Predict the 3D structure of the following.
Amino acid sequence: MGATAAAVPAAAELARRYAAVRRHSLALAEPLSPEDQCVQSMPDASPTKWHLAHTTWFFETLVLQPDAPGYRPVDPRYGYLFNSYYEALGPRHPRPQRGLLTRPTQAEVLRYRQAVDEAMLAFLPHAGPGALQAVELGLHHEQQHQELMLTDLKHLLSANPLHPAYLPAPPAAARPAAPQASALRWLAFDGARADIGHPVHDGFAFDNEGPRHAVLLHPFELASRPVSCGEYLQFVRDGGYRDPRWWLSDGWAAAQTAGWLAPPGWHEVETAQPQVFTLFGLQPLQPAEPVCHLSFYEAAAYAAWAGARLPTEFEWEHAMRHAGAVLRRTGGGDLHPHPRAPGAAGDAGAFEGLHEVWEWTRSAYDPYPGFRPLGGAASEYNGKFMVGQLVLRGASCATPPGHARLSYRNFFPPAARWQFSGLRLARDLG
Amino acid sequence: MGATAAAVPAAAELARRYAAVRRHSLALAEPLSPEDQCVQSMPDASPTKWHLAHTTWFFETLVLQPDAPGYRPVDPRYGYLFNSYYEALGPRHPRPQRGLLTRPTQAEVLRYRQAVDEAMLAFLPHAGPGALQAVELGLHHEQQHQELMLTDLKHLLSANPLHPAYLPAPPAAARPAAPQASALRWLAFDGARADIGHPVHDGFAFDNEGPRHAVLLHPFELASRPVSCGEYLQFVRDGGYRDPRWWLSDGWAAAQTAGWLAPPGWHEVETAQPQVFTLFGLQPLQPAEPVCHLSFYEAAAYAAWAGARLPTEFEWEHAMRHAGAVLRRTGGGDLHPHPRAPGAAGDAGAFEGLHEVWEWTRSAYDPYPGFRPLGGAASEYNGKFMVGQLVLRGASCATPPGHARLSYRNFFPPAARWQFSGLRLARDLG
Amino acid sequence: MGATAAAVPAAAELARRYAAVRRHSLALAEPLSPEDQCVQSMPDASPTKWHLAHTTWFFETLVLQPDAPGYRPVDPRYGYLFNSYYEALGPRHPRPQRGLLTRPTQAEVLRYRQAVDEAMLAFLPHAGPGALQAVELGLHHEQQHQELMLTDLKHLLSANPLHPAYLPAPPAAARPAAPQASALRWLAFDGARADIGHPVHDGFAFDNEGPRHAVLLHPFELASRPVSCGEYLQFVRDGGYRDPRWWLSDGWAAAQTAGWLAPPGWHEVETAQPQVFTLFGLQPLQPAEPVCHLSFYEAAAYAAWAGARLPTEFEWEHAMRHAGAVLRRTGGGDLHPHPRAPGAAGDAGAFEGLHEVWEWTRSAYDPYPGFRPLGGAASEYNGKFMVGQLVLRGASCATPPGHARLSYRNFFPPAARWQFSGLRLARDLG
Amino acid sequence: MGATAAAVPAAAELARRYAAVRRHSLALAEPLSPEDQCVQSMPDASPTKWHLAHTTWFFETLVLQPDAPGYRPVDPRYGYLFNSYYEALGPRHPRPQRGLLTRPTQAEVLRYRQAVDEAMLAFLPHAGPGALQAVELGLHHEQQHQELMLTDLKHLLSANPLHPAYLPAPPAAARPAAPQASALRWLAFDGARADIGHPVHDGFAFDNEGPRHAVLLHPFELASRPVSCGEYLQFVRDGGYRDPRWWLSDGWAAAQTAGWLAPPGWHEVETAQPQVFTLFGLQPLQPAEPVCHLSFYEAAAYAAWAGARLPTEFEWEHAMRHAGAVLRRTGGGDLHPHPRAPGAAGDAGAFEGLHEVWEWTRSAYDPYPGFRPLGGAASEYNGKFMVGQLVLRGASCATPPGHARLSYRNFFPPAARWQFSGLRLARDLG
């Protein structure tokens, strides 16, 4: 499968995780009406209902059909509707038209999930090693889609002039009180020969996280926390969106064409109290929170304005490993659909603000030396996207608990703004 | 208001009609899930939910707010969301983004309708002549949207590869048995000085149906019924879509660019039994039924291939009046969302197949001599669209009962295909 | 051929006219460099060199090849390159790519013209009636292209920030001194049954000018001269481009999308002395001259702002015939590539300012009753464009002498702005 | 300036090179008519005349205006017309409209060149170190444009259905006789710590070629010569353009959307003797010649099909340096606008076919560690394009003699096909 070689997980453990991951997807959809779950706000985003069906199709197509004796697909037409991009698995519904699928209805998709879940749980005790690895891949795949469910839904809600909320805003007492971001510190790292990528036999990883290999790093320093909304507001107010000096050529063109004046979802920026669209609806801008929903172009422009740069993905991984950083959700395991200020919830250690926003790096999403996509349909999982995209590292507030890794390579095109994406500054040393 | 001057309707009668018309809109939405009602399949179409809200906004904005003392809008933000195109009534939500409005939800829109209905029914006994005329306009406006609810919904469902049905297909016994269309007869009309347009004092009409005026007609003949699916299939099989001789230049370009090979919704045309997408789902092509969902370009190409032409709107109106044609729904008052074969249900008289498909004419949608849009917001109702469109006459199977008139001028751009639009042939005489 | 039936012209007379018309095309190209003649500034416009070759191809293809015994095409590949839109004559070079044809060179095209001219003049004494009619059509066709050579070239030069001139501006003394437009008078016409269209046996006309037929007209009045630049400037300064009340819906959308703020070629409109791009380069706006390069949308918006309307093409033709108007170039036969103020050069009679700008009418370009395109390739000449366009009447300063007729129906889509197009106001009477 | 620090060149030597480089540009334009030099075939390409003017503007703006006392620009408006992309130097003519500039004429641009050349040659003996460095940059800049003159012109001629030639094809005897490509050998390289980038004090280089730095390489092997037309034809005939397995996802989408079926300029591929468009016109495909005009997507797809991959730019540079490769034009200094078969003209050494086609690498165009754009307008020279592009290494048959370097980093977006771009295969070892 599309994962790097690793020990085969035990069936019982997988069954437990299977149930938990599948339940979490439903929990994310719980606050939404059928309408919210059906509409597609742009070609890059998908409806919640489609995510729920596609992740189910993944198990049906890559586990049950090849491996479960006598399994019959719930509906043979779903293969066409819910294939995302696997050319090897036949033709598929065009991505920009996913939002037209008012049928199957929400209820039918839930029945589809239930039928596949029952078949999966019945099959798992009998699964061989290959099937178990496919199940593990399917669970990580579904976790990726859990984050996308939130990003895509947030984009949809943000396009509504009523600024509707996904969840009611928590009472003020329950929200982190962080009027000030922690002081930004620079952590220095010597030049080094650093090992990059997921270590074999260290649990699951996607194929693009390996092979582990050495790179040479020059001395650099990395900021202790992501750039905050307050800092980014200074860039906006300093005319950063009107000055081509800070921008890459393509970024300047994109900003001019689309009329970017601030991050998406920022309103009333020219007033004393800008508002920011969140999954709790429109909220006052919190200066201490990490800035979010930046394109790579904006992240790079901010870094240039700040006299710094973006780190490479190798610097990022090396620094984090070296500092013993841990990627965990600050608020425990509960739903946490909005970036929080570092320190607000007891964040500690050399680096702060991890697991709040994905951090753009200066690295193109290229294959590691010796990378080879594996056989079968899963060979299309990662490798075929390795051009025209940039790597993001870390994890965001919308990444499900337990899904983050220091070797994880998220990737998006440089103009993408609907992800929970921010930046952490770097500088050359010596 | 935007209607031609006519006697003011009585308040009690209007209240009765108000209740009936408003109920009919809900009945049309009844078979649909909230998802079906929310999604927008293309910029020209609107979601069912939007139609339900917009027609409500019309009464709120043009009757209750100006005329009902003390009325307070249900939600002041709805004015922005549900204004269709009235520049005089302020900014509005962009048309192509109507499908993004998952909020207000279906339930909220129904509450909106209910609140306005209660206010309207309370207000009507006290309404003055101006308000009563506005109510009458609002009812005809809502009837127009009732047809659009079906056309827009049908376009949405047709974009779904599952070919879902709006309604379950009636049992075979209940469907018209018409394997053969009635023989096509030509009805001849002498040259004449004909009066065209809605007669004053003959009930309601839209402003674009007047002023009534005389035109000169040359001798012509008009077909007794619309072109049938069976006849149109011959055009398709004769290579009509591949031969530029039959096509207007713009039509040929449109057909090539979009890859038209048959009417929209026709499947398996190359087989012995083509299928047609209907509101009952995919059904075998019925040769006797009027061909439907043609663009003007296709209608004109067919007419050229058939050695005939489209009638002008003046010829059409004159012939129908002269022959004493009546526009009524063949199946009584019940829902009838699919064109039926003339004769199937007892159609009689000189002309058959009226009220089955809108009939494209060869007339550009231009103002009648002396046309003057009236004052106020309603001045935008019709006049500002008088360029680049063609007139369609008659009514379709989706036009609500009682909404059709011989002077009615429907209009669409020449490439529009999602309406229930067909054609009736004409020829020069003498 | 594509002309209405008429007496066959005499061969000797045609040969004389042939030589004169062909010479005039070359005279128009004379002031231009090969570069000026090769470049295409937008898909709707064609390079001068292409016009010179296409008009030659017309004679070669419709006269010499079918009728001149033993004629061999100059280059068989030219049929592909220089066919404009005749589907019956085979595939053709895509219109938007005409400007890529740096080869054949200017010199080669001139040799092509010369070879065809020699063959034509040798053939003409032997031509039969059909060929002679084709030649006549070809001459009128070339005259149409003579006007297009100037309009297309003007568009090209207007896109150059250097504002280059086609011709040196004449010395001030030679230019019409008309600081003031003549006072606008309204000429009244009774309701009437009017004969419209080209009379049979009255010389050449295009097929779309007939059949001659009667229409009913209501009382109206027509302005004595076109709207002037000075008058139109008031509309601009009154905020006419920012007020949707005056605009048709499609017009408003076009103006917003394209950012129209004034007619094309108007510069420094907000200053006391606006500049206008002309074929003499940038010149001070002349208030008395007819406003030019308007789209139909702008013409209609101006008319609405002025409390008037555009005339129908029938009103226009009837009024002109009734008043004995004559379409002739004011400055004699010489080149006159810029609209002049009425009265400036001795303009007289009831109507002034004819032959200065094409005048948009309120009439869609529809076929006259009984219109039937004739056989052969020429059947594509006019009829296949009869949808989506508006009729313009009169003639412009760029129309070659002798090419204008009161029955002439020019036509363009409503957004077209690169023609020499203005307007004359009309009003209802009684 | 935008070059890496290097010894200041001597004024006399620069003057000699200045004259030679400027003369070479004119020699390239010599076979072209004014029309050929004016037209722009797509937004990415520029007209020859524009290249001639822009390279002149570069010297005028970056040398004469800041440094030559009393210098007055030839025409102050040229700064607007001929600035390519330097935001710091003010607004500029939009790139897609460069082809509309029929004025200034060809003759005027030649006069512009002459005036600037005279001023430059008069100024050079008095130039200080900064100005001399700017001159050197300007000469390398002009050499870059010399290659673009040929690539852009070739694109223009290829869009002409007549397949015109830039130069007459040489007589058969003068053309390389190479029916067979040399056998493809694999040259192996051990893993290594390799120094990459231009060595300081080793003559001129662009800023993006430094800083020189070490990278770690894994064992690999590199093909002795580029992929040949004959080999690529097998890929085409094996259905390579119809099989998504070989393609990156973006590449597959690009190929489907644009309908790629073979490299641009290949005709009659399905016949036994395909034709290829060259600067000598249409010529029979030469199996031994390097395949050319590939996009990165096609190069990567071919490599996947061949069971190999593209080299990284680091592997390429290391292998070439290690093998002592030399980049020189095989045919001496004469004009050589078409790739030749390796071995045809005495090519020798470990690597063959260098300086025939640019070779796509698998490396995104990212900044080297420590890269910092320098100050002034030249800071925009390279750095601002460092996203979304891929590095090409080597040089092509259209690269002017003396302009190639082993550290040279050419870069284009992955879909670009109008460059002289091919590929050399690589494979992992061990």
